[in-house]
User: What shape does this take?
Amino acid sequence: MQVTPLNDQQLIASYLEGNEQAFEELLNRHQQKIFTSIYLFVKDQSLAEDIFQEVFIKIIDTLRKGKYNHEGKFLQWAMRISYNMCVDYFRRNKRRPQLSPTDTFDIFDILQAHDLNAEQTIIRSQTHEKIRQLVDMLPPEQREVVILRHYADMSFKEIAKLTRVSINTALGRMRYALINIRKMVEEKEVVLQ
Assistant: This one.
């Protein structure tokens, strides 16, 4: 007999009734995606960990105060909180995020590669590095949409709401980002395999 796992709303309800394990399950379910999106914005492991903790403290406070509404999905709500905290950090420090890996964390380390041989693994790693460098060269608004769409797996509707622009603006930014990446590939004669 197969047991159906609880959905996010059921886990939240269970947590509010005193079941701490329900929140742990919710955290385990979404922590990788939330942490990754934070890291891609701040580009610093320890800062990303600090913001990640702040995000979940805010989530717990909001849940306990009964201010969370069930209209939206939990993950999108949590992503909005993490995005806003990253924006607040950059406003305070007047810094823009850069997309580049570090020695301790690389987004492509968590993406699953099925049955690749050593050569394929090296080629994939080099290709991902080239793509990261190209994304890093985009204007901030375009880079933001690429990160939210491809790394945080958000819909354009969610991106538009999160960044407080129209859906057409979000789509336009992605379109221009792709055009700019193609231009850079041609101009720099980058070979993506």
In short: Confidence is low (pLDDT under 50) at residues 96-100, 110-114. The chain is about 70% helix and 0% strand. The domain at 111-193 is CATH 1.10.10.10 (Arc Repressor Mutant, subunit A). The CA atoms of residues 13 and 22 lie 9 Å apart.
